[in-house]
Specification:
The protein is mainly α. The protein contains 16 helices and 4 strands. The chain binds a DNA duplex through helix 1 and helix 15. It comes from Diatraea saccharalis (sugarcane borer).
DNA sequence: CTATATTTTCCTGATT
DNA sequence: AAATCAGGAAAATATA
């Protein structure tokens, strides 16, 4: 059953041309040397496919909520807001949200890909509108929006003040978010063994006074938020792991018994990663991918066709940080979903599959299927 | 940490 | 002949 599939959201797949981060070395890379045939085989494939690559899609990155880490650049720190480009705005937003003790997964950052000038003009209400997203508690989004808005206003007024002080503006020394030195070693084996590390532990507290509660066991946004206001997080006395040389003030506080107020709400921590069927659904509902590389064959029957199987596989690989993904392997993953009727095969037709009874929800507010349908027919004629 | 679910890799054999 | 399909097997990852 694929009841875990998140509802489709616009911008769920996001396409952008940011430089791709250095690919993580995977153990799989080395397996090539264990199998002589695979080595030659692989070369052959990659060479022949290179000829078909379309530059536009080559640099495309399928974005899902998981890789906001692409926006970890810090250019924005050295510019005035008015000079921020879209990426600067997003980078700032993500970092600010984290400094405030929120999870980056609560931030629908793709709604904030705006130039700094537009951000400046944004009213509190608009920030809120953009912050709202189906998977996050609206109250949480509201607090996040408010807090972010305040931060923005602070920065803007500080800029104004500095502008009067000196005509030459430099932001560096006033940076409220000094980043700690990167703790990265070339020989760090962890980075080889677990790619998740990138988004689980890449996160470094920038403001310890605010972040005290953000990284610990609290699931509750209320707790996190309150700790930033009153600095009264819970004290772990039993195992002793948190006591000792830590902050003395903490010892005088003890969490009152019972469930903290408002702790029943669910906030999004790390969202479940996108499954193969979900991924397909997302592409199918996104006009940036839909007719071009994958399209509906028959929306009513949930049938779809791969136009460029290798491009789809490449996107999947990109999303999973796996440069070795091929349609061959991707389709194997698809076939495993036959068992549960999430997908069903369409015999005789090649590159055509179908969502089964347990498939993801494919409804959408703006179906572009009508147009697709006619293109289908055209292509059909040409093909045969 | 354990168990289950999903995905990746590789492979054999069949089909178009 | 090259692509695509079907699954088995096993290992790797992800999630509960």
């Amino acid at each position: 059953m694929i009841d875990y599939a998140r509802p489709y959201e616009q911008n769920m797949c996001d396409l952008y041309l940011a430089p791709t981060p250095p690919a993580q070395a995977r153990l799989d890379d080395f397996q090539v040397f264990k199998k002589g045939t695979a080595y030659i085989y692989g070369n052959y494939y990659s060479n022949s496919y290179d000829a078909y690559q379309e530059p536009e899609l080559d640099t495309a990155v399928y974005h899902n909520l998981v890789n906001s880490r692409e926006y970890r650049r810090e250019d924005w720190k050295y510019k005035v807001v008015a000079d921020w480009n879209e990426d600067d705005t997003v980078s700032w937003l993500i970092e600010t949200a984290q400094c405030l003790g929120f999870s980056e997964y609560d931030v629908p950052f793709y709604n904030f890909k705006v130039h700094g000038l537009d951000l400046k003009l944004m009213k509190r209400e608009e920030v809120l509108q953009r912050m709202i997203t189906p998977n996050v508690d609206p109250m949480l989004s509201r607090r996040l929006a408010d807090a972010v808005f305040e931060k923005l206003q602070n920065r803007l007024s500080e800029e104004m003040y500095r502008d009067r002080e000196s005509s030459v503006f430099r932001y560096v020394e006033s940076d409220p978010y000094q980043h700690s030195d990167a703790v990265q070693t070339v020989l760090d084996l962890d980075s080889l063994e677990h790619k998740n590390r990138l988004y689980t532990s890449d996160y470094r507290p920038n403001d310890s006074s605010l972040l005290q509660g953000a990284c610990d066991s609290s699931d509750d946004a209320e707790d996190v938020f309150r700790s930033s206001e009153t600095a009264s997080p819970e004290y772990y006395g039993s195992d002793g792991s948190k006591s000792g040389d830590e902050d003395d003030k903490r010892k005088s506080f003890k969490r009152p018994p019972g469930r903290p107020k408002g702790s029943g709400r669910k906030i999004s921590k790390r969202p479940r990663s996108v499954s193969v069927p979900e991924f397909l659904r997302n592409l199918l509902l996104d006009p940036r991918y839909c007719p071009s590389i994958i399209k509906w064959e028959d929306h009513a029957q949930k049938k779809f066709r791969f136009m460029k199987p290798d491009e789809v596989a490449k996107l999947w690989g990109k999303m999973k940080q796996n440069d070795n993904m091929t349609f061959e392997k991707f389709s194997r993953a698809m076939r495993y979903h036959y068992r549960q009727s999430v997908l069903v095969s369409v015999p005789t037709a090649r590159l055509v599959y179908q969502f089964g009874p347990k498939g993801p929800d494919i409804t959408t507010a703006n179906p572009s299927m009508v147009k697709v349908k006619s293109e289908t027919d055209v292509n059909e004629v040409i093909f045969s």
